[in-house]
Amino acid sequence: MGRGGTSQALVASFAAVLLAGSTVTGCGATGSGPAGRASPAGADGGRTTSPSPRVTSDEDLCTKLVGHWARQVLNGRSYGDYQSMGLSGGQYDILREVVDSVRAAERQGTADPGQSIDREAREGCAEWYRAGGPGKGPWR
């Protein structure tokens, strides 16, 4: 291969890397751009808008985490410590309350565990954040 072939191969390799990078990161993709701004949709000249990203509130995140771990515990998986679960001390307290409550309801046959977990996790997290949420220490 001559000198021209080597430089063509380098250009082709560089182009492939750029293309791969733009595919993975979404750079230059149709409809990409800052949220809410219109960008070209193609040859037909149509325009689309990108949805803005959804932000999860602290309360919703707490509810999802507590619900997830409550299901794990109630399905016979071990508790572990709150840090290994990615929970704060307050979230772990809510988890223990939810698990205890759902187990009591299951013994009585009065509740659907899935609905009870979701409801109690939401109520516990809402109350916790109403009271100020995490304290000054990282474990709260």
TrEMBL record:
Domain of life: Bacteria
Signal sequence residues: 1-20
Residue numbers spanned by region Disordered: 29-58
Keywords linked to the UniProt accession: Signal
Statement: the UniProt record of this protein carries the keyword Signal: yes
Protein name as it appears in the record: Lipoprotein
